[in-house]
Write a structure and sequence with these properties.
The chain is α+β, with helices and mostly antiparallel strands. The chain has 8 helices and 14 strands. The strands form 4 sheets. A 6-stranded antiparallel beta sheet has the order 1-9-5-12-3-2. Strands 4-10-7-8 form a 4-stranded antiparallel beta sheet, with no helix packed on it. The two termini are 24 Å apart. Residues 60-64 and 229-286 have low confidence and may be disordered.
């Protein structure tokens, strides 16, 4: 009810994201043993089910670099996490609010129009030299959770690191079952694996101020109708919502992934052009 009273365009135009400098100065919350053995087993089972349901589409990533780095082993668990492991998701939300109150001054998550799961990515990186990720930020999200699913004896290297305000790099302790909670705009990265037999398995979840999307990828549209299709590498959007595939891909859009219907009367009221974008848009697939 509170969310419905906030005009859509106000949410779109004023996402109230922290600056990179603010996020850079924030602390990382280390939660040892956040995941129990039952939690770890449930996450592995969930990823296996989602991979089976989605097939190769579940491993799709919208950057060639990421596909190369992960070797096609990423599963976008996404909304299935909240749907099928609601207890774990509720604990994540509580942990995010606790970190905000105790470490970040209570300002990051205060008076938000809606806090929801943006994405949940199950990553497996294997082999000597695999998995390096340069320092980056999870733009558009508010809080990121990293969960370690592997025993650290299973890999060498692969340290989780954050960049601090002065430019120094901090390496964080990160053991099996631990959670690292941090502001998404804080620069962070992962060192390369060393050792031919190394295998590093994590799950990365992002919370944003937006809708709880049901996409098969990491959605980039918090409020307006989104266009997500697994086998497209890029979408070209127009004000009329016409999406064209990148060269070399099929030009036909599968309606199942075209967008999500949400409060269309409100969308139409807030922006007269939006009905053209969502016209004939089906409801989201389960």
């Amino acid at each position: 009810p509170e969310l419905a009273r906030v005009p859509l365009l106000r949410r779109v135009r004023s996402p109230r994201l922290p600056t990179y400098a603010e996020a850079q100065a924030s602390a990382v919350q280390h939660l040892p043993g956040f995941l129990s053995e039952d939690d770890l087993a449930a996450i592995h089972r969930l990823a296996a089910r989602v991979r089976q349901r989605q097939g190769t589409a579940g491993n799709w990533s919208h950057t060639v670099e990421r596909l190369h780095r992960e070797g096609g082993r990423t599963v976008f668990v996404n909304h299935h996490l909240a749907d099928e492991l609601p207890g774990l998701y509720a604990r994540m939300l509580r942990a995010a609010h606790d970190a905000d109150r105790h470490l970040w001054g209570g300002e990051l998550l205060a008076r938000r129009h809606g806090l929801a799961l943006r994405s949940a990515e199950y990553h497996v990186v294997i082999g000597d030299g695999g998995g390096p990720m340069d320092a980056h930020a999870d733009h558009g999200s508010l809080v990121t959770f990293d969960f370690m699913l592997s025993d650290t004896a299973e890999f060498e290297g692969g340290a989780f690191q954050t960049v601090e305000p002065g430019g120094e790099v901090t390496t964080h302790s990160f053991e099996r079952g631990d959670a690292l909670v941090f502001q998404s705009h804080k620069q962070h990265g992962v060192a390369a694996l060393t050792g031919r037999s190394s295998r590093r398995n994590i799950m990365v979840c992002e919370l944003w101020e937006g809708l709880p999307r049901r996409c098969m990828r990491r959605c980039d549209q918090p409020w307006l109708p989104c266009y997500c299709r697994p086998d497209f590498t890029e979408y070209h959007r127009t004000v009329r919502g016409v999406a064209k595939a990148s060269p070399g891909t099929s030009a036909r859009l599968d309606p199942k992934y075209r967008c999500e219907r949400w409060r269309l009367p409100e969308v139409a009221r807030d922006c007269p052009r939006l009905p053209e974008i969502v016209r004939d848009c089906p409801s989201p697939a389960a």
